[in-house]
């Protein structure tokens, strides 16, 4: 009789222990899934930002192909930094730290184009340094700042101009 009494209490302890193990396993699986989803979202946003930055470089190249003198006007007007909204055909002079919404691209991205003269592209050449930066934010950013960036640098000159010795 005494042996039976101890066995009833022991099964309750076993059930509680099994429940605790199950909760730990479910918590671990949930944590792994959440981290994987966050990494997937970040990777997707990074790929989109790189594509938007490349689109910005292509925009400047098209501007150059249309009229190199127009590209020079963008270079000499103040400021040399512009916001380019998604689907826009005209860059807008940057007026705030993160384009103040002027350069918003669908999905919460900001695209900025910086154009300036550059001797590091080709000494003595007529090239412009073009830097396209696409910024975005997510839950890891503090204070509502755009804390993630994708940046592409390029040297753009006249279409008939080449870089380097012949």
Describe how the helices and strands are arranged.
Layout: H1 2-66, H2 68-76, E1 81-83, E2 92-93, E3 104-105, E4 109-117, E5 128-136, E6 148-156
Antiparallel strand pairs: 1-2, 1-4, 3-4, 4-5, 5-6
Helix pairs in contact: 1-2
Polypeptide structure, described:
This protein is 45% helix and 20% strand. It is an alpha+beta fold and 166 residues long. It has one domain. Strands 1, 2, 3, 4, 5 and 6 form a 6-stranded antiparallel beta sheet that branches. Helix 1 (2-66) packs across helix 2. 19% of the residues are buried. The mean pLDDT is 79.
SSE string, helix = H, strand = E?
HHEEEEEE
Q: Describe the global form.
A: elongated
Strand content: 15-25%
Distance between the termini: 102 Å
Structural class: alpha+beta
Number of folding domains? 1
In short:
The chain is α+β, with helices and mostly antiparallel strands and 166 residues long. The chain has helices spanning 2-66, 68-76, and strands at residues 81-83, 92-93, 104-105, 109-117, 128-136, 148-156. Strands 1, 2, 3, 4, 5 and 6 form a 6-stranded antiparallel sheet that branches.
What key attributes describe this structure?
single chain; 166 residues; alpha+beta; six-stranded antiparallel β-sheet; elongated
